[in-house]
TrEMBL record:
Name the record gives this protein: Multiple sugar transport system permease protein
Any one GO CC term of the record: plasma membrane
Gene3D superfamilies in alphabetical order: MetI-like (1.10.3720.10)
Domain ABC transmembrane type-1: 90-279
Listed PANTHER family: ABC TRANSPORTER PERMEASE PROTEIN MG189-RELATED, ABC TRANSPORTER PERMEASE PROTEIN MG189-RELATED-RELATED
Species, as recorded: Sediminibacillus halophilus
Main location: membrane
Organism superkingdom: Bacteria
Length: 294
């Protein structure tokens, strides 16, 4: 009975000491104040956007504070959803980003597993080839990429939007470095038990690589969702626009107005904000994971 009490006492002492260290920090109040100010600066534009989107159509004012005061209405949201293609663009962005993320994870994980765990000639040179891919900016490959997609008759299609974006040298490098740290004893015991390479990959490697896969998936989804240049060049039909392409086209028709463009931007932003609030911990872990070597 004495050992649990000792453990409880030691735990309570460490908690008290950590609280004392926090309270003794002379810069604690200053850090909290700066953090609060920065948070307000980031949140204020979002609040302003949402409030402006609730104003009656055609509303204008010379006093900035009037945007934060009534009247408010949801009529703009109904009009935008009914009279524009923004829901279609939202669906296109979600579909393209989701499929791109899935295919990228499949291809990068298979390539990284082959380079890390399989033995074949020139695999070190192939890995160097992936490293060199990080040195080439995406804009430099736009023209040849456009010519290839055009010759394959994939312009103005979902296929043309998705396939050119699934190559991820950074994903291969991150996963390869992660797979290298998998204990060799685990792989050797699986081989002795008669596991094939695919079974080792599916049953052993992938479950261990969930943090790395999550971080790559998060950044791939965000990159595809925010991608403007390639959808702008490869898509001609308005029905196939993604949000980064469709929103500027919509806003250009209301260059002298605030309310309807803000309503469209709010409709495009609300799903992203909700997803961020739901998966906040996973996103932070993914960002922190990419900054940890090994």
């Amino acid at each position: 009975m004495s050992e649990p009490n000792v453990e409880k006492n030691s735990t309570s002492r460490t908690e008290v000491s950590s609280l004392l260290e926090i309270n003794r920090d002379p810069l604690r109040k200053g850090k909290l104040t700066v953090g609060f100010i920065v948070a307000v600066l980031f949140i204020l534009p979002i609040i302003w956007m949402l409030l402006v989107s609730l104003k009656p159509n055609g509303y204008s004012t010379t006093n900035p504070l009037d945007w934060f005061l009534p009247p408010f209405t949801f009529t703009n949201y109904i009009d935008i959803v009914v009279d524009s293609l923004i829901i279609r663009w939202l669906f296109n962005s979600f579909l393209v980003a989701t499929i791109t993320t899935i295919l990228t994870l499949i291809l990068t994980s298979l390539a990284a597993f082959a380079i890390s765990q399989m033995k074949f000639r020139y695999k070190n040179y192939i890995f160097i080839f992936f490293l060199l891919g990080l040195m080439i900016p995406g804009e430099a490959t736009i023209i040849p990429l456009y010519e290839i997609v055009k010759s394959l008759n994939m312009l103005d299609s979902y296929t043309g939007l998705i396939l050119p974006m699934i190559a991820s040298p950074l994903g291969v490098i991150i996963l390869k470095s992660f797979f290298d740290n998998v204990p060799k004893e685990v792989i050797e015991s699986a081989i002795i038990d008669g596991c094939s390479n695919f079974k080792i990959f599916y049953k052993i490697i992938l479950p261990l690589a969930k943090p790395a896969m999550a971080s790559i998936g998060i950044f791939t989804f965000i990159g595809s969702w925010n991608n403007f240049l390639w959808p702008y060049l490869s898509i001609l039909s308005e029905n196939l626009y993604t949000l980064p392409v469709g929103l500027p086209v919509f806003n250009a028709t209301y260059s002298q107005a605030y309310v309807l463009p803000m309503t469209a931007n709010a409709i495009a932003s609300i799903p992203v904000i909700i997803v961020f609030l739901i998966f906040e911990k996973q996103i932070v872990k993914g960002i922190s994971f990419t900054g940890i070597k090994g």
